[in-house]
Amino acid sequence: MAPQSRPPSRMAPLGMLLGLLMAFCFTFCLSRQNQKEFALSNPEKSSTKETERTETKAEEEPDTEILEVFHPTHEWQALGPGQAVPAGSHVRLNLQTGAREVKLQYEDNFRNNLKGLKKGKRLDVNTNTYTSQDLKNALAKFKEGAEMESSKEDKARQAEVKRLFRPIEELKKDFDELNVVIETDMQIMVRLINKFNSSSSSLEEKIAALFDLEYYVHQMDNAQDLLSFGGLQVVINGLNSTEPLLKEYAAFVLGAAFSSNPRVQVEAVEGGALQKLLVVLATEHPLATKKKVLFALCSLLRHFPYAQQQFLKLGGLQVLRTLVQEKGTEVLAVRVVTLLYDLLTEKMFAEEEAELTQDMSPEKLQQYRQVHLLPGLREQGWCEITAHLLALPGHDAREKVLQTLGALLATCRDHYCQDPSLGRTLASLQAEYQALASLELQDGEDEGYFRDLLSSVESLLKELR
Ligand SMILES: *[C@@H]1O[C@H](CO)[C@@H](O)[C@H](O)[C@H]1NC(C)=O
Ligand SMILES: *[C@@H]1O[C@H](CO)[C@@H](O)[C@H](O)[C@H]1NC(C)=O
């Protein structure tokens, strides 16, 4: 599964350094006063030109440059929108308030990192410091700032800023001598797990570690490596943390790690992941947490009949039933119904395939045969629940519910036939989709979406007559 594009904070260390260098260049180019002091790439060739330009500008707007720059201290302080932060500041996201916060790092922290490299040490690019977005924001502010009025106080601040920003030539020299040691994915995962597992890490740091980890475990090999050093179990244990956000992000990682990865799925079930996921779904938690946990559950159950059996034994269907009957959980209800549909069709295809090809291993077929999903669904009232969900607004939701009603038809036929509200809902959907399908046809779509929905509705109506 291809992961989404990497966010800036996850750029490879070298890329990040180069990004930083470019951003610094840009910042310094824009900052007219700095042009003389920090001539760019080719000082010999450009110096005259730069000086000329600086002088012209200086005549037009003498000394009006203002840098709206934040002054970090050794305490965390909230950063205003678009404020620039001096190099070496430490920026973090406060998850409670959504504010970005800044504090002062050791002086020339960045440079010390580079020095460390030259001695062959690993570059520890702190993903909390500068992101390219921070720099973009800073840059935008610099442009705005140039139009504002100057004051004595501002001048003093500018001087301070210049002291903190390091001359570009010095940075360049550091880069030239760089010999970056790239961490392997395994090393990165070990580092992230240690961060998450450490009692001295803050909540923000733990969440950031999980967030980054999710990127890596999309790759099958990486997810299996996570097993090899006990990292998976640490993340599974995160599901019974007292902090809902940690549960949420642990589930986020697990959902990615389980996805089509049988080895990881097996270990996770043995490591108690199934119980823990169900406990979160069965107890009071924010919707966002339940969403991610449901996602992880789906990913654990798919194509893994043993987990499906365990899920049924552990009362998974009751847990899901309670979940879809809560108020305000329509999003979850649609996902639950989709999961049930997927499990039903998966079992059906497995059994069909085994008959047709004899390719499937006998144990696997045996396992699918032991997933008694349909009887469980019928006993626990899923015929009625699914029928009621058809009243949900949204074509997408209805599409999923219609599919599932179809898959349950043989099992639930008597329930459906005795349910007058189902008949009414289907009739009104029929009218709605007839109208939409004919509009669709007028637009030249002969195989349109609404026509498909209409034919699902009509075939159900026919079956129930
Ligand atoms: C996580 O922390 C616990 C306790 O501090 C420790 O025993 C365990 O080995 C750590 N696990 C990993 C995978 O680092
Ligand atoms: C979660 O439960 C497991 C075992 O059930 C335990 O080892 C672990 O320490 C618990 N984790 C937290 C954060 O409570």
What do you see in this structure?
This protein has 465 residues and is an all-alpha fold. It has four domains: 64-124, no CATH class; 136-177; 185-375, Alpha Horseshoe (Leucine-rich Repeat Variant), CATH 1.25.10.10; 412-465. It has 24 helices and three strands. A three-stranded antiparallel β-sheet has the order 1-3-2, with no helix packed on it. A hairpin with a 6-residue loop joins strand 2 (89-93) and strand 3. Helix 21 packs across helix 22, helix 22 (395-417) runs parallel beside helix 24 and helix 23 (420-442) packs antiparallel against helix 24. The chain is globular, with a radius of gyration of 30 Å.
Global shape:
globular
Care to count the β-strands?
3
The CATH class of the largest domain turns out to be: Mainly Alpha
CATH architecture of the largest domain: Alpha Horseshoe
Intertermini distance: 43 Å
What is the helical fraction, as a range of percent? Answer: 55-70%
What is the arithmetic mean of pLDDT? 75
Under CATH, the topology of the largest domain can be stated as: Leucine-rich Repeat Variant
Please state roughly what percent of the residues sit in beta strands, choosing from under 5%, 5-15%, 15-25%, 25-35%, 35-45% or over 45%.
Answer: under 5%
Which residues form runs of ≥5 with pLDDT under 50?
1-67, 106-132, 145-150
Output the radius of gyration: 30 Å
Number of domains: 4
| Sheet of most strands | 3 strands, antiparallel
Ions, cofactors and other bound molecules: 2-acetamido-2-deoxy-beta-D-glucopyranose
Structural class: mainly alpha
Major beta sheet, strand line-up? 1-3-2
CATH superfamily of the largest domain: Leucine-rich Repeat Variant
